[in-house]
Amino acid sequence: MLKIVVCVKQVPDTTEVRIDPETNTLIREGVPAIVNPFDAHATQAAQHLKEKYGAHLTVLSMGPPQAVEAIKKCVSMGVDRGILLSDRAFAGADTWATSYALTAGLRRIADEQGMDLVLCGKQAIDGDTAQVGPGIARRLGWPQITYAIGIPEVDAEAGTITVERRLENGVEVVKARLPAVVTVVEEINELEYAPLPEMIRAARYEPEVWTAGDLEVEEQFLGLSGSPTTVSEIFPPPQPEAGEIIAGGRDDPAAAVQELVDKLIQRVEAGTAQQRSEV
Amino acid sequence: MTETQVAEVGTTETGIPDTLEFDVIVVGAGPAGLAAGTVCARAGLNTIIIERGRKPGTKNVMGGVLYTRPTAQVWPEFWKEAPLERCVIEQNQWIMTEDSVIKMGYRSPHFAEGVPNCFTVLRVKIDQYFAEQAEAAGALIINETKVDEVLQDDGRVVGVRTGRPDGDVYAPVVILAEGVNPQLTCALGMQEDLKPDIAAVTVKEVLRLDPEIIEERFGLNEGEGATIEMFGASTRGMLGTAFLYTNQNSLSLGLGVLLSEFAEIPDTPHDLLQELKHHPAVAPLIEGAEPAEYMAHLIPEGGYNEMPALFGHGVMITGDAAQLVNGLHREGSNHAILSGKTAAETAIDAHEKGKFSAQVLGHYRQRLEETAPTIADLRKYRKATKFMEHHPVLSVYPALAAYAFEEMLTVDDKTKRQKQWEIIKEALRRRKPWGMAWDAIDGGLSFI
Amino acid sequence: MSNDPVIMKPDANKGLDDRLYTVKYEVDEENSHLSVIDPEACIRCKKKPCISKCPAEVYRWLEDEQVLEIAYENCLECGTCRVVCPYDNFEWEYPRGGFGVAYKFG
């Protein structure tokens, strides 16, 4: 049977994160933790492969103990086994140290039960780096296919996978040898509404928790001390100038349009005048 | 617990997979549902709590003052570890006119001693804490799942149907804690839907403010809290209250108005909230606070008179769905928690007997009557809402009292005796003597 | 002082958009949980209290089409529209589990 591992991350719902304008720090109060949306789509893609070919699905995550919630959510989507890498030694990891630890976890999973395919989300919405998936592929020495919008075929006998990739100007169809790493974008599928029995199974499921001691790793490459990059500053992008709403368009469209035209002309004239004075 | 012969591995004799059969189903993870779920699970019942929000609390709104003693009956000493906002040591009642206010209040360190009387809370945090307690007791909480229908068989409630694929679950007892909009109890024919004269719409805003500023403005020490309830012009004389509560690093400002009166005027709830924010007595207290969240909810004001049948075969109704709210005393969550606890105890008894008939579950109401102060209080105030509705008590009297205060406290060329006469004349101009006499008698009778 | 009912300074309903901006929603796209049973009753309804009593401005009367527009995405799920409707004309239910308003403080 096809053995698939999905790597997921628990992230703050960044649509809810605001930046304190004075301290430039993230206001996290009341912000819920969710499964990184790209990773949820990767999990759904794995579930579709399970339906199509029959497969054993494992989900692997790294994070604080609360991140078991993200794993349970994936279990409700049809995942069979969930493992959380959780240890203070992993804390503060950048993408380099994260892919190092996750790869160590993947190797242990491969030893225990075999592994044909690793699926990841394209990137996490809290960091937007898109580096961990490719990092894992490089460390495993496996082919990597990014930006997947479809997985039309997995041929276990021939040991190949066919993936459709979203490019800027079209779709590229790639066939690769298994085992491989594939990262997906949201376009790949629609998230399904989990059946109640699966919700109940997930609520009862206890994910396995592995510490650094459970993995073949070198301390020096883990967490903050193993991270060659640091975030030096966080700041919000400059606010665009507030727009102006010209009201009354419903009742008197002609007057509203006239007002808009007048304002535009004024702006152009003001701009030209400024250019002249600059000259 | 009922003895169930297992027909084959994984299914019960009814043919339902045993993973979908429970001893108790609780609908809704608010204070009532979580109290019920905790108590059932502690007794070893296989308990499932079904919540439509993405986490417990995320659909819930209250002022919010949480009373310690009733809550501690389910979660002993919770106040030592729960995410509470501030311990309320000062409670104020303000009678408002358009631009003035008569303030009454009581402040006492005793409120914080021993078992503190009450705390301000934010529901999302506190409900998630209660949910963790329910889970620790062994209850299974299923979030993001709405119950669409209560399943019945031959007049008996046997389970619920959720909106998820393969969404049926079964239990001999269903405890409905669905909240103020009683969709499921109505569908069961156990009560009628809310009407405008027994429902108040409430809007509230959470305003973020530094703890030091809150403590300075309200005269509080660290961790101490104050509450202000406002009557009169704060709801434009309509039946309702406005409130301002201090949280750890925010304020909760809101108001609730009875819909039957509110429907008579063109304004929106948000209009009233904006007005309140600009009241000269309120504005300085919230100045500089940053809006963190806006919310709305209904409060059931029917009280004792509108209480539904609280039980049927295999079903019990708790909390807001059972109209268990004392609007005059801003009490709701305490009644919800006690009703949830009492329903759970009844369910435990029923399982011990192996009987789930209306007769057995009827003990729920009996116990609730005995559990001071839940139903007793509601019975006491059963006429109060009707008395206050369309009554001058919240419109004429605040302005009159303010006029009297202003006259007596202003030093000018009139003698005090002259001022007293003018106040009496003004009072009689605004409300005839027999009207006042009737207000006193009627009011007295309604509250006794 | 007059005997008029007490009315504080009116303030236009400005700022509701800013208020709603603080609210987190998980919108169930193309799946409205609110609908009108009989559109004719809305035309007959003079006061249309659902519009003014909704705390989130979900409802708007489209004069040209003579239809109630329902912005269910803004709904705070309080139930006021259903209770206040003089014609009991709402098909009202909560959004699908997991969708709709998701309070952060409550």
What features would you describe in this structure?
The complex is a heterotrimer of chains A (279), B (448) and C (106). Chain A has 2 domains: 2-221, 3-Layer(aba) Sandwich (Rossmann fold); 244-279. Chain A is 32% helix and 25% strand. Chain A is built from 6 helices and 13 strands. Chain A has helices at 37-53, 68-76, 95-113, 132-140, 196-204, 253-278, and strands at 2-8, 10-12, 18-19, 26-27, 33-35, 55-62, 81-85, 117-121, 144-155, 160-167, 170-177, 180-184, 208-210. Chain A has a 9-stranded mixed sheet with strand order 11-10-9-12-8-1-6-7-13, sandwiched between helices. A two-stranded antiparallel sheet of chain A has the order 2-5. Chain A has a two-stranded antiparallel ribbon with strand order 3-4. In chain A, strand 3 and strand 4 (26-27) form a beta hairpin. In chain A, helix 2 (68-76) runs antiparallel to helix 5 (196-204) and helix 3 crosses helix 4 (132-140). The N and C termini of chain A lie far apart (74 Å). With 448 residues, chain B is an alpha/beta fold. Chain B folds into 3 domains: 18-84 and 121-191 and 308-371, FAD/NAD(P)-binding domain; 196-300, D-Amino Acid Oxidase, Chain A, domain 2 (2-Layer Sandwich), CATH 3.30.9; 391-447, no CATH class. Chain B has 16 helices and 18 strands. Chain B has helices spanning 31-42, 68-72, 123-136, 183-187, 211-218, 259-262, 269-278, 283-286, 333-353, 358-361, 363-370, 374-380, 384-388, 396-409, 416-430, 433-447, and strands at residues 24-27, 47-50, 65-67, 86-96, 101-107, 118-120, 140-142, 147-153, 156-162, 168-170, 173-176, 199-208, 224-232, 240-246, 250-258, 290-300, 311-312, 315-317. In chain B, strands 3, 4, 5, 6, 12, 13, 14, 15 and 16 form a 9-stranded mixed sheet that branches. In chain B, strand 9 and strand 10 (168-170) form a beta hairpin. In chain B, helix 1 packs parallel to helix 3 and helix 1 (31-42) packs parallel to helix 9 (333-353). Chain B is globular, with a radius of gyration of 24 Å. Chain C is an alpha+beta fold. Chain C has a domain at 30-101: Alpha-Beta Plaits. Chain C is 21% helix and 17% strand. Chain C is built from 4 helices and 6 strands; from the N terminus they run H-E-E-H-H-E-E-H-E-E. Chain C has helices spanning 16-21, 39-44, 49-53, 80-84, and strands spanning 25-26, 34-36, 59-62, 67-70, 90-92, 100-101. Mean pLDDT of chain C is 88; it is low at 1-13. At the B-C interface, helix 3, strand 12, helix 7, strand 16 and helix 14 of B face helix 1, helix 3, helix 4 and strand 6 of C.
